[in-house]
Amino acid sequence: MSRYSQALRGTSAVTDAPILDVWQERGYEGEPYIVAWELTASESKGRPVQHRGAQRISENLFYQLQRRDTVRVRFIPDQPAISALDPQWVAAIEQHSA
After folding, report:
1. Interval 46-53 mean pLDDT
2. Which of 28, 61, 84, 90 supports an S-S bond with 57, CB 3.0-4.6 Å?
3. How far apart, in whole angstroms, are the C-alpha atoms of residue 1 and residue 61?
């Protein structure tokens, strides 16, 4: 996953994506909080294609997000299935709620 995170840091493709769900994984160490989203990107022929992604989030961010909200997602333009929450967006949300 580190090569993906390195590739994501170097990309400038950012979009707002609707949240599909926010949940807490019970029974796991630390009971991680998860957010899932669906981003729309253009395929090579220009048609829109949906890609789903999910990642662990902090407890603080978990309580800020709800289904049907949007999250700011960074993705690789020629591989939009590889995406992650935009770190600057996450930092701004968490700072605002502090």
Report:
1. 91
2. 61
3. 22
pLDDT for 1 equals: 46
Q: Is the dihedral of CA 74, 76, 80, 83 positive or negative?
A: negative
Compare 12 and 67 and report the one with higher pLDDT.
67
* 65 or 28, greater pLDDT: 65
What whole-number distance in Å separates Cα of residue 40 and Cα of residue 49? Answer: 6
Q: Residue 91: which of 65, 61, 66, 68 has the closest Cα?
A: 61
Q: Which domains does the chain have, with CATH numbers?
A: 2-97 (2.40.50)
pTM, two decimals, is 0.83
DSSP letters of the chain?
-HHHHHHHHT---EEEEEEEEEEE-TTSTT--EEEEEEEEEE-TTS-EEEEEEEEEE-HHHHTT--TT-EEEEEEETTEEEEEEE-HHHHHHHHHHH-
The answer to whether the beta carbons of residues 17 and 71 sit under 8 Å apart is yes
